[in-house]
Amino acid sequence: MPETPSAVRPDVRGPLVAIRGVSKVYERGRQRIEVLHHVDLDIPEGDFLALMGPSGSGKSTLLNMIAGLDLPSEGTLSVAGRRIDRMSSAELARWRAAHVGFVFQFYNLLPALSAQKNVELPLLLTRLSAVRRRRNAAVALDLVGLADRASHKPSELSGGQQQRVAIARAIVSDPTLLVCDEPTGDLDRHSAEEVLMLLQRLNRDYGKTMIMVTHDPKAAEFAQRVLHLDKGTLVEQAGTSA
Q: Start and end of every ABC transporter domain (predicted)?
């Protein structure tokens, strides 16, 4: 992983992510919509977890809470022993920058920037020098197999290559968690398999803890564990052969 000035890795005792009795309710006028219902879940460090379920099952809401993008209506959520459900918006923003890498379905790359500059973006929030930023971005691009595409802009890359640039951007600050929301949803089968193999390698060889939302059973096979949600409740857990 690239070197960063982030805080020393926490001494994790017990699960890296501990979710207890978490519910999420949205209120729209007089309507009350419960998206998650008393979810309990442990995610150990080094896990590769796939979250599956029908549309509206709560899987993306749960992912967003783990990533500090949303807060539970009730229950507790701890990451590396820290209660992120108690953090303010400003504290959560700082925590995300230091501890979470994001991979989205549609890459979210800036079209005017090269692959190298896109990967460097999270490091602009650190105190790293320009030289160190370039070096770390180069290491991340090499890890995803795109060292020779560093100067290319997104329009000059295939969909699979763009997603690998997005993964390089997600890992460049060596985050505690890597959260992936339908990372292969916009890719053809061959490109999707390349991306999933890369995620699996980052998990197995570098110990990255990953949580992936997917609707694709083939994608879920690359994870160590698969959890299914239905109407906001965990209903099934199954191992995979990955």
A: 17-242
